[in-house]
Target: Putative ABC multidrug resistance transporter
Amino acid sequence: MVSTELRTSPSWALRLIVSWATDRRAAVGAVTLALAGAATDLATPLLIRSVVDGLSAGRSVATGALVLLTVAALLRFAVQFGQRTTASRLANRVQHELRVALLSSVCRYSGQRQDAVRRGEVVSRSVADLQVVQSLLALAPQAAAAVLHVVIQMVIMFVLSPVLALATLVTIPLAGALVVRSRRRLYAATWLSQQATADVTSFTGEAIAGLPVTKVFGREELIERRFLDLARDLYGKRQRVARLNAAFGPGLAVLPQFALVLVIGVGGAMTLRGEISVGTFIVFAAYLLTMTGLIRLLAGVISAVALARSSVERIHAIIDSAERVPEPPAAGPRTNRGEGLGLQLSDVGLTLGPDGRDVLRGVSIEVSPGECLGVVGRAGSGKSVLGLVLQGQYRPSAGRVELIGSHGRFGGEDDSGTVAPGDPDVVLLTEEPFLFSGTVRDNVLLGRKFDADRYASALTDAAVDPMLERMADGDRTSVGEGGAWLSGGERQRIALARALYNSPRLLVLDDATSALDTLTEARVFDALRRRLGRGCTMVVTGRRRAVLSLADRIAVVEGGRIVEQGDARELLRCSVRLKTLMGEDTPTPTLGADEVASGESQVHGTPPQDAGPGAAGAGEEDPAAVLAKYVAELPPVVDVPQRADVASGRHSGPFGLRKALLPVRPAAVTALVCITIEVVAAVALPAVARAVLGRSTDGDATAVGLLFTLGLAITAVSWIAGWGTVRATTRVCDRVLFAVRLRCFRHIQRLPLSFVDRARSGNLLTRMTADVDSLSAFLQTGLLSLIVNLQLLLGVALMVVLLVPGSWPALTAAALVVFAGAVAFRRIVSRSYPRARELLAAVNADLHEKVHGVRTAQIFRCTDRLIAEFAQRSAAYRDERQAGHRAVAWFFPLVALAIDMALICVLLPTAVAAVPWKVSDDGGTIAALVLYLSMLYYPIQQMATVYDSAQQAGVGLHRINGLLAQPVEDEFDGAGAGLPSTGGALRFDRVGFTYRRDAPYSLLDVVLDIRPGQSLAVVGPTGAGKSTIVKLLARFYRPQRGAIRLDGVDIATIPLRDYRRRAALVPQEAHLFSGSVGENIAFGRPGVSRAEIMRTVRAFGASEMIASLPGGLDYDVGPRGSALSAGQRQVVALLRAIVSDPDLLLLDEATCALDLEAERSIVNALREGEGGRKTVVVAHRLATAAQADVIAVVERGRLLESGGHEALLRSDGLYADLWAASEHDGATSNRGQGDSA
Model:
């Protein structure tokens, strides 16, 4: 797993500032504009003071001040536009650079660290955490300006009236105490909340990848319960953050109101005594009202800082954990391409995993240039790990791996013998190759320069050309995400062509042809032999004699050690151990009785260390330990979602806010009431100020005191209402988001695989992360701000009209300007925001894919190209976002300008008496008017952020509803024919099927019968349609022609859930869920006893494998089973299928990663336990297929022949050719004579 170690030093802020200031010109511009903005904001109340005080000095003074006020308003518009544009550009740039840095760092991970990566967590940090950082950086210039504004404001206030300024300073210690008290607790709670978000994201990605397994076992409800537990945990932790925010946020926000009440009381008394002018009183009041908005902004920034701190540290935990991957030597003795290249391993050892297991021990062997070494061993013996060491993916914990030339070790001091990932001379090809989205040609070239001769040779040698002949677009055919649109054999052939195009001098093949049919494999081996003859050195790992036919020497690996090595022909003739592995001797029990007991004791042993968020790898510190001091101060999580929220999440159909709010109506009404009380309190204070000035002029000290008391009461009510607002709105938000997450997840679980295969899993993950996060941001902060600001705007407009009835023309004119601007603004952003959202989805999907393909990219030295492609895609999103921000940057300053001009128009008649609807010269009325209009600046500033958030949320909601609108699998809840008797026969009745309407049929007119208790093997060339038969039987797809019948009943009419719960599938690429071995085995049958699991383990000869794992059944398999070898994953997947006790067992190359001894043991156990079970086996190992009762041979989607093994051999058709090419894999059928079907 990615290291999540936290460094609690303040360097995170410094690093963020350095990143922000990299573009010096923009950074200097942002700071300058922030200063200019603060200056214009501060100058406006002073100019208004000049207008008010100038009324008594003469109209010319007031008129001159109004001219300056007009200039200040225009300057404010220009400054705000520049400030917003620059701030968004800087924030978007940093977000882009950090996103690219995340991928760049993962691309530098060693093989060990790649195994520990939780892909979903990397995507989560690139989505949720980067969004938090971007939001903070966008606010940073405003926050800096706000701090500067407050400081200069206090200086001006001291100059105007030291006594009144001292009265307002009382609030500063209170604010500091609130911030200090909340900082640590809020930081720790926020970190845990974000980690819970990452856990939800990781599990979602894992569930999407494991969808076929979930569906075939009918365990959607089990996966949903696991997701529900994670979502509940996230809800509780988010609510804890909300409680902590409610404890300090409203108090901090109400302090400026408290200071304003102090000014009203003290300033009223000073005005009463003539110590300050009405204009000075207005300046103080206006500054403090402005400060209310500024403090709200700073309170939001403090919360954002707590979020951003953990986000920045989580992002840099990935970036900083990147390792320096050794570069292959650029020059030296190795550069002579004509010279052979060999290998020398000297006492190599390797330790992996948090439990520190020794997977290789004292391995010493030499491979001469031009030689082929075969490596064999049981599942988990260390073969694949050895291949990764040879390619430089894993760095040995002990010993040395060196490349050698024809004359021995390379001389010099240039590390010519060093093996490093991306070494052009060394290429590793694994059993489960990774293909990138794109065409066949793209995946063969991987950005390398095109050479027609090399390209044609690679396609021919890898047997890709016959495959391309069947594709309408040839090598321009798209392979889908991860090669999902191709069969396993097709993926292996393209990967082999990619490796051969590199013309490697050392080729490491880790069972890289296991999914090929025997004829294709024989053709590939002939090409590999020719390359051996031309001096290419090879190391091949395999489990079949056909693979070892390439080898000059063979090394047998057991328990990470080479226990036997020698000449290939000699070992194959004499070695009992090797013959056993090849399945040529009678297999011996894997464990004796005593050993089984010992294994059982291990099975019930202590579980290994949890591989959760804290298990970053050996020697790395658990974040829980780092944060222990802070976490200890946190209150417990006490909030849980309501039943109504769970019920709402289980609804189907589009998501609408109106319906979603129905279960949370009491909290929503409470929030609305509290918001209204806050707004009324805010609007009431200027009226109190007006009354105080009026009573001061009359000399009524008692009335001033009563009004002061009223102001304190209003402030206290506002504080209480603010606390209620935060609690109620966050509860509403989190309950709605809980329901959205649950509904989306449930819907994804019920989508047909035809849709999931077409949609990139990264896109589906984006719907559950970025789109839900955008909705979350709007509901949690944007919606609240929108309601508050709209109410405030309406309240202020009403009060201004009541104060100055003749002001409506000016306000109407301002409204018309704003309306015209809004029309143009909406036209721009309605195009920009959806485009930006689609680009973000593409960025996230691309990151998801490239994180999975890092090992392939390292092997073929194309990580720089991957990073460049991703950077280009990310830059396109950055530029589109900036286009939207530019529209925001001019529109909202325009709104502020309109209000400034309305204020000037309202004050103008006071200065120029010729206008009949002039404002009363009463100082209290002017003060109230100025204060009310001053209150509008902050809402307008906030509306820009709110609108941006609302647009993102709107696009996110549209995309979420686009997902929810996708039809789920037909008859999931089933209502039709009941499930026939479990002993029924299956029949393919002239079945035809195509994956895409414009593509040829993958199956056509197939007629097959599978009787109860019968096993059917499906064989044929790669891409013939074998796996398609399995997918149709699993009901992942529906045939377009004909029908599949169970006891004469079309299976399409049988309730899907019932049908699948009686079936089990073991795919070639076994998917395991995070959790223990035992939990994965019991997946298909929750509640099965541990004793029954162990009986199955013994029956299938897996006791030794289970016993070898620390903790046995309790051993944590890691994300997607990454802690196990491919063979071990297949064994667990097989056990999972058998324990579920299915009536229909589907095995799609289910034993291809096992040695022949283990495979034969499993096949024999399957036959002994068949009973009335129907078994369908897709196999390229014909020795396995030969054990079946009936063998069906398919080619290009058509059934060519079927029957028993012996009968098909006598018919001398395609099966006989395949059998002859296989050389029997060292195993002879022990079946009797079969009859033709």
